[in-house]
Design a protein that fits this description.
The protein has helices at residues 28-55, 63-68, 85-96, 100-120, 123-134, 153-156, 252-287, 299-327, 333-358, 370-381, 386-398, and strands at residues 140-143, 160-164, 171-182, 189-196, 202-208, 214-218, 230-241, 289-290, 293-294. The protein is an alpha+beta fold and 405 residues long. Strands 1, 2, 3, 4, 5, 6 and 7 form a seven-stranded mixed beta sheet that branches. Strands 8-9 form a two-stranded antiparallel ribbon.
Length: 405
């Protein structure tokens, strides 16, 4: 692999949003792979986004071409070892700066489901399933959140699993419901987390989406992530063979290990959303004329642009450093929680400022800011709300848990 670009050169893949040139950490080959992703997003995806966002539908015609780009574990990067974490982070960033739903759809497979297999599956299961996860021949979704349990899912998870012994190695019977499961309607399997009635511990199962007793309902009426198809899933006496249980998931502690990695992905999404909103707002104020002058020439507008850029730069610094730590094998709840908490908080301000500088047109899809402004609200909440992530950090700072009183 070649050396990375020299900081300060003009070899950037991204725009002015990457002010401190974090992209210089990527190799030439990594930038080339992301370059083909960006070209696809700009030419094929971006023209469809406003229409499909308003319709509340996912542009399915983008799915196969996006998969065929081979950007999860690109062959031109992985002939010796898996692609680096920093590459995965910038891949998420690139998707999110185009559209939050696209980023969420892709990371449902490349982040959530892949992490579930990587952390939860046995060695033999990984050998069988992981190649299929990478090439999308086995599509799955992470099914943890329930209708009545989100932030309190660790202790409140109510979907049950009951084991029945038989000559085929045993069968599990699942009952319960899951909610907000993105991409479930097009998945092959649902990675369902359920509480074993025998020992009270959380276990995980790959459930065939078309299995008897599985019912999926699309969640309508959303004002955020409208393109992402979220489902309410009902499980009624669903039978799953023991071979489809993730053998390394035997308590919620094992689930927490998955969430630790996933929060860093969401922090990259929050950072990319900021970049997309900022770029759209910047382009607008450079062209829009008011009182005989460009909007970009006014002091108050420039101040808002600078604040947005500051948020993005700080967010990139957080996610890059977190990703470097994880590459060294350092995975701590408080680190990923802090990054998700802070990037999401800055994202909220950044998208609001972008909407402000665009004025009244900022609430229309044509100005390309409204999608980011609305979609940020979903990202602000998923994979841990601001409050939950703050308490994870606070628990480490004080040595005391504020979760239960």
């Amino acid at each position: 692999m070649s050396t990375t670009a020299t900081p300060g050169t003009d070899q950037r893949l991204y725009s002015v949003a990457d002010w401190y040139d974090a992209e210089a950490l990527l190799s030439t080959e990594e930038r080339q792979v992301l370059g083909r992703l960006r070209a696809f997003l700009e030419t094929e995806a971006k023209p469809l986004l406003a229409e499909y966002w308003e319709r509340g539908e996912f542009p399915e015609q983008l799915a196969r071409p996006l998969i065929d780009l081979d950007v999860m574990e690109p062959a031109d990067l992985t002939f010796e070892a898996p692609a680096r974490g920093i590459f995965h982070g910038f891949r998420i960033f690139e998707l999110a700066r185009t559209d939050a739903s696209l980023a969420t759809w892709y990371t449902a497979q490349a982040g959530l489901f892949r992490t579930a297999i990587r952390v939860g599956a046995s060695e033999d299961q990984q050998k069988e399933w992981m190649p299929k996860v990478i090439d999308f021949s086995l599509k799955g979704v992470f099914s943890l959140t329930e209708p009545e349990h989100g932030s309190d899912i660790a202790g409140g998870l109510s979907t049950t699993a009951r084991f029945e012994a038989n000559l085929d190695g045993g069968t599990w019977v699942l009952d319960g419901a899951k909610r907000w499961i993105g991409g479930a309607s097009t998945a092959d399997v649902l990675c369902v987390f359920a509480r074993d009635v025998a020992d009270g511990q959380v276990k995980s199962f790959l459930v065939d989406r078309t299995a008897a007793g599985v019912t999926l309902e699309k969640i309508h009426g959303k004002t955020s992530l409208r393109m992402m198809q979220n489902a309410h899933i009902t499980l009624d006496n669903v039978r799953v063979p023991e071979a489809m249980r993730l053998h390394n998931v035997n308590s919620f502690k094992d689930v927490a290990a998955m969430l630790r990695a996933m929060r860093s992905d969401v922090a990259w999404i929050a950072t990319g959303i900021q970049a997309g909103a900022f770029e759209a707002g910047l382009a607008y104020v450079k062209e829009r004329q008011q009182f005989g002058r460009s909007l970009g020439s006014y002091q108050l507008v420039q101040e808002k642009l600078a604040r947005m850029l500051g948020n993005i730069t700080a967010s990139l610094s957080l996610v890059v450093r977190l990703t470097e730590q994880q590459a060294w094998g350092i995975y701590r709840d408080q680190d990923s929680a802090l990054a998700k908490m802070q990037t999401s908080l800055m994202m909220r301000e950044t998208v609001a400022l972008a909407r402000e500088v665009v004025g009244g047109n900022g609430i229309t899809l044509a100005a390309d800011v409204a999608r980011f402004h609305a979609d940020a609200e979903a990202v602000y909440s998923y994979e841990g709300t601001h409050e939950i992530n703050a308490l994870i950090v606070g628990r480490v700072l004080t040595g005391e848990s504020a979760f239960i009183h």
